[in-house]
Specification:
alpha/beta; 8 helices; binds farnesyl diphosphate
């Protein structure tokens, strides 16, 4: 059986794919386990999809790992998620290096617990020279936080006389977001059946193709990822023209 991977046009790949990894809790509940078990299995999907993206030659993969809103989940779940995220990042650093993957992070990283922030920064530093896939983790991220934050910085620059109101345009705003230097996503995937964007990269997805699948994140595998890329390649993008 030919796989979706074989049908992908390698010369027309999306440069940047963003994923809303949803459904860990539901996946676990359907199997009679608690939510944490779902998150643990979600890590396997993170590994698989990172490998798939690197293998096929995607340049940027952004994963919505922890939203600003996730801070309001029960403390035990927040703690477990933080631990899982940080342990994974720490344990995977050698593999990231072996596969030439550069780790980046976007979001309000000042809200991360001190130790988590330190370990994250260590992995970012240790992989910073890699030239293959850039794996961008959205941590303590929400678009409204990001846009509000950028408005504050721009306003301060204007107050300080470093910028003029007339300097403000699309490009300038993009350069004050946490995604500066990262191209806008070409494709955004959301797993687990919900058809919404949930405060993720709102500015950046102006012309992004959206792809929704019912598959829960812990069950999402390479072929599901390739299927999404194939669907993307069958769409006609006009960028409003
Ligand atoms: C959504 O499922 C998932 C999350 C809030 C966390 C995603 C985290 C991981 C996959 C773990 C580690 C990630 C990395 C990058 C190492 P949900 O809890 O909202 O599920 P539900 O909608 O079914 O309740």
């Amino acid at each position: 059986m030919t796989s979706f991977k074989d049908k992908i046009d390698k010369l027309n790949l999306p440069k940047h794919i963003a994923i809303i990894m949803d459904g860990n809790g539901r996946w676990a509940a359907e199997r009679g386990y608690d939510r944490i078990f779902g998150h643990q299995n979600g890590v396997t999907s993170v590994r698989e999809i990172t490998e798939a993206a690197a293998e096929i030659g995607i340049e940027y993969l952004t994963l919505y790992a922890f939203s600003t809103e996730n801070w309001s989940r029960p403390q035990a779940e927040v703690d477990a998620l933080m631990e899982l995220l940080i342990d994974t990042i720490e344990n995977e650093t050698p593999t990231l290096n072996k596969n030439n993957v550069r780790l980046m992070a976007i979001g309000d990283l000042t809200r991360l617990p001190g130790k988590a922030a330190e370990k994250l920064q260590r992995c970012i530093d240790q992989t910073s020279k890699n030239t293959g896939l850039s794996l961008v983790l959205a941590l303590s991220y929400s678009s409204r936080w990001e846009i509000t934050n950028s408005l504050k910085i721009i306003s301060k620059e204007i107050e300080a006389g470093k910028l003029k109101t007339d300097d403000i345009n699309d490009e300038l705003i993009s350069s004050f977001l946490t995604t500066k230097n990262i191209p806008d996503p070409d494709l955004m995937i959301r797993t687990s059946g919900e058809v919404r964007v949930s405060n993720f990269l709102l500015w950046q997805i102006a012309y992004t193709e959206l792809y929704f699948t019912k598959t829960h994140w812990p069950a999402f595998r390479k072929e599901d990822f390739y299927q999404a890329i194939l669907e993307f390649q069958h769409r006609e993008r006009r960028f409003g023209k």
